[in-house]
């Protein structure tokens, strides 16, 4: 780890697959051998071969990533700053528009619901960040269904009950929460804001919610813990189990040391999802439109698959849970359960709960929404006398209104997780945005519980929701197939320009 | 209550939260202490601090409001008119457009159905008034569902019956009505027309319908009673029960004195709803877009909640109904029942009826329509032998066609209430508009009963409607979520501009 | 009945409600006393008071109408042609556009299905004619449902059957028909073409279909009979029963004399429907936009109702059918049956059949489609052993494809009626248009029967259609309510201009 | 078969129905007598009467077609090339646009799913080719339903299973396939690319899929066999049974000689379908708009029906299958089965399987999708203990995602066929396009199986799919009827321009 000073012009010569050096935070690394293992593909690194990659590197890698993944000898030394040509940073049209949009940002108080943060974020996020955050698997049918499913549940409100005082506080895995809502884990938080996940930590602490820390955070785990606003602030941790169990053990130990109160093991992502909106924006980003690159494409995707298998173990199975319980005393919850059969099995094993979830619609398209699965899970747990406060049910995906949370609670859930909307909130407004979002949810929740006639969460009984339509999936016509089909024409020509279809025009 | 004459320049100095005077109808009041209790928030008063607030005050406060809510010493005297600077009233673009639209108002006879009044009113109402009248809770799903639900009921018309003479007169709580339709209570009637609720009184009297007088009227209760067109004209009264029962008793006594024939106790609004369309127009109104006002926003909403609790008692419960029966001989009807359980309880208590209603979709989103609830209420009342003319069922929400009323009657209702459409009718055309609307309903009703083969309302039996689809809620894609989602893109670009989504553009 | 010659200037003085003369085909009539009885309202006559009304009169009155409805002394004599000022007929923009569209009329062979005739007719019909033909009752929900309902029936085609020869000939009330399709009765045929209903007679004769002659034809009954292309051509007659039974008997006797083979008694129109599209175009037509005319409107509609009752008897009941059977030997069919209860009653009475129909969606909105009713009628007739070839079931409404007819036949109908599409066909192309439409249906029918594996209509068994979804009504969002509702807005403004909503704009 | 040299000017004189000569590849043929038998109608031939028809002839006729269909004496000799005037080929606007689009063709790697090939192909195909490939029967309801039906099936994924290794190889009729997907037969492959079906052969060979060779290929059968990329490459053959059984026997024998491994007998096309989109483009092509041609139209269609019966026998029945089995040892599969009754019969006869298919929605509109039929077929086969690997079930129609194939396999199918998407792939990119499409499907399949928790196809059990909604057909509003209906208007005019409706405008 020498303090060797390297000339930038020398570094610039290592700009190929054969020899690839990059500068990050003034330090020079030889990443030639690492290229095929890069989870994002080698192409994106080669773009910065021989150059300063700091700006591109920062938002998507937590501090220490390079050090942890490269052998010590790959660190070659510091770059001599005087030799580094200051590249005139190109200001793109998109940059200009975003700057302008930021100047015209609506007042925070104009955001009246969680959808608003989404439309505001759309204005201030780079296209790449927006695509990463907002995209879902394949035709995004499941992503939409997550939200739509709540719309198939209606209330049966009761009248003439004393609703002067409303109390929606609750307890998750024995930890207090001001609401039956928690902040669920989402990846790459710095794409939206330089402080990344810490925005969520601050808002959660101030508003009394529990944050689930993601494995794939942009901030380091310790940074996120350090951001707690008070000592009693509770955090959970979301875990991807590594093929190398020792790595996982080390991570769990660190979480316990930092006082994490619950372990959410992701079980719905043995392979990371493929989101086409996200992929399309990358093509736009590169700008070139050269034919005959199909082979490269194939190679790259194989490389990604290989690389991923190093930190998510696709062979993880029920047997591994015994080992997991042996290495921690934290309550263990399976995140990503999608059938009653697996929920029952988790309950029978004595786990602490399950998150009924499809990963925000980002993994398997046409998997069902968590809220729909909740219906069958509660039914089957009750039939086996396994429905109890000792085995908690969580739901995430599509929650946008406090009423969505209340529907889940009435059906038997302990709490629901919210992810994207809070990302959008801090992308536009920082931690205050997240706080405001939470306050909106609190105001909605107070109002709704009063109107439903349920002064506490215990009063929210199954009879208060009409779930008869819950299993009736409807695929709305925004999906790919409907983009492709043409309207019928008539004897006097096309009734209107074909919808969603590029036509032959000069 | 002196006749003291005050100099307007002196008044103008009391223009802050610390000391706030306002002029209304030439009288000067000190409202400093009242600021935090104002139901509409203190901000709106401060806008007029030290100034003449008459024009903004009038449409939303019945005469006498200030006097009833302020201690006598807060009235400081009359303003010296000679010192009052005539402010040049700004004529906005909106004002100009409305004036132009009024000149081009369609002839009344061009309004062929109740929807027409809505589109015409949209042209002549100020944006703020339109937003207040037309808005619903949250995503307005329930507001739309109210109307849509009627569309899931179809007729089974019978043929070859003598339908020469059609009679659709009926009796509500023992009072005659020319139709199974009444004018239900709605708030702030002067937003649409300077004569406010009196427009409804006049039309109701001339056309033989019963009007339900609202607690939150713009006109005073007595003004509305005074507007009756003949001595036999029947009115009902809609009641918000005040935390101070003495206030409520006084109101009830006055209603009895003025000959009101029925008391409709609102039970679905322990807290006044929050309508986002209405909130948004207010931001546009203020015009400023300053950051860091989020705290103010929070305070304001808390203030509103506190203030409201003074005139609507959120602790109102079934037990209070005994008291209510002890203070009046008027028949009592619960307005806002949303489950068969509560309807059965009301029947068992010996009340005179219930209005199955969700408050026009303005309170709890995803509550079901009154017409859907009617189905289960009739079934359960019959099962308990409680279905009888002594316990009448009313439905409001979404009624736009006489056929909607006929569907409700066939299912077991006595009558249906109509609110917004009559507001729209007089906003554009005054009392003649309301009369025309009622005449249209009468013409539709005569036609429909003839075509259904039911010469009187008694002939409208349950077998004449096909209600199998009634419970099948469909959320149409105008809701917030669908505004936010983007269409899928393709390899040759976006098929069309994203629908309902602001995009990054220069 | 003098040959008295009248000066046009003299006639022109009788131009008011007090004294109203009109000239039709050179003859002068005093219609002052007839004004209040005119089915179309007095307003439309007064427009031509003192003038030559021939051009407006002709398309909507069959020859002889005036003579039959006026006392002989109201005929005042012939107008002296030399005194008649030739009015320069104004050529409107619409006239010009229609002329241009006629020049660019698609070739008849470009019309590939029945929908094509509708879009072509839209181009060449006057707005008033289009509105009359294409409109339906109220929100046109039933009109759309008629067609949509067929879309809920799917085929279960069988394979490997010898389909070399396809035969779709059948027999209606004992009369041969080349297809299980007949031309049903529709009113005011000259609005689309000067030869009116005769176009249908010619095409029906040439193509071997049966035409049902309407009571409200533009051509006289005899003209339509005279237009038969060969001696064996079969016609049915649609009957409105007059309050004056002698008038009806006379009509029936004339029909028998002219060889009509079946009597279809309309039972779904005790009052003529009210169609708003049709009403709107009339306002555009008058051009004036004067306020305070609401009273006139009310009077007019009452007048219409009274007038109508003279030729359609709203007291017609089951008992009258005994009389009807006593005055004719023609088979009697009830047209407009909408429940199984009434169909069963008709079968029990020994009538020859029923047409399951809602009058093309022009009478009662939210009545169900004939094809849906067919399902329950067949079930209940079979349950009572009344399902037999001696009691034939017909369906009309929404038939646009031969496959629609095949679905009905598979379910148990003998034939289906088609109305509007043939009007559209001759409006654009005369009798050849109707022939082409029928030929298209024949080609579709041959193709479809071959593909279904049913070489004859007898082979079309109930198992060949999947009708499970038939009762699932869906109201598509073209209806009035959805025209009125606005999309939700967002923190960054309206996602797009409100759909279907005029907004305040300068 | 003389080498006689003919003068082009002489040939040009035979340009009428009375004497019609055409030049194809330099050879002159007398086709006068063949005109009425031409499957595409005589009109299209007469367009080239007396001229060189090579360019129009080539893409839609496999080599040898003329020789096989004409008597030897109809070959008149070679044209003298020196006498042939080189016609300046007109470069149309469409040609220019397609050339431009081809220059801007997206990179192959930008095609992320099978829908992409469709939108890209739309850019580079001639309108006529696009219309032929993309069209469906009548209102294209079934064509859309084919895809939509898959959207009514949702997954029930299982967690914590070892999904390190995914294997989706399988066996079709005893032949290995890398995926449970095969390339199904489609007609006229050269419309999209000069190498026609050979593109599919090459890609199938390289990617390990099985291709089904169509009877109506643009390439000759032998050309397609010759294009195999290795000796083990497997091909199936799709057969239309000729009225002349000897012709069919000869074809079968040739298929066996060339090593074809399975015979798919088309049973859903006793008559070739009629697709209106395809017919409309032909009218645009001719350019003339002359009236009075209706008779010609009728003749032509009759001619076509007659002509077709020569190579597809509409009398084919179950009995003929005994003969078929007697002339080949290839496994026989019925292609186009649409009910469980016929599938059971095929199983009882001992055939090797059925393809549940509606011919890509190109034959009978409102026939159900193969995937829906699969549900009932498996149920009924199981009830009769006929569900076994010896009787394989295939499904085609609407498959666009690997998940569609997995849904079919989970329900009991062996494999699914894909047609149009591969045509689109090679139309834009040649065989590499098809390969890329297959690679995308493989990547999707690996991902999906991992996420479903099914490492092999055997692990895909029925419990992994939720098919409760499968029978709920929804007709989306792109169909003809909805193109024709107008939105309701209002008192202030039309809310927006009528949708899907040409209006009278100047």
UniProtKB/TrEMBL annotation, chains A, B, C, D:
Sample GO molecular function, one term: L-lactate dehydrogenase (cytochrome) activity
Cytochrome b5 heme-binding domain span: 3-80
Pfam family, one: Cyt-b5
Domain FMN hydroxy acid dehydrogenase per the UniProt entry, residue ranges: 106-470
GO biological process: lactate metabolic process
Major localization listed first in the record, in broad terms: mitochondrion
InterPro entries on file: Aldolase_TIM, Cyt_B5-like_heme/steroid-bd, Cyt_B5-like_heme/steroid_sf, Cyt_B5_heme-BS, FMN-dep_DH, FMN_HAD, FMN_hydac_DH_AS, L-MDH/L-LDH_FMN-bd
Broad EC category: oxidoreductase
Catalytic activity of the protein: (S)-lactate + 2 Fe(III)-[cytochrome c] = 2 Fe(II)-[cytochrome c] + pyruvate + 2 H(+)
GO CC terms of this entry: mitochondrial intermembrane space
Subcellular localization, as worded in the UniProt entry: Mitochondrion intermembrane space
Keyword hit for Metal-binding: yes
Oligomeric form and interacting partners: Homotetramer.
Stated family: In the N-terminal section; belongs to the cytochrome b5 family. In the C-terminal section; belongs to the FMN-dependent alpha-hydroxy acid dehydrogenase family.
Name of the protein: L-lactate dehydrogenase (cytochrome)
Organism, scientific name: Acaromyces ingoldii
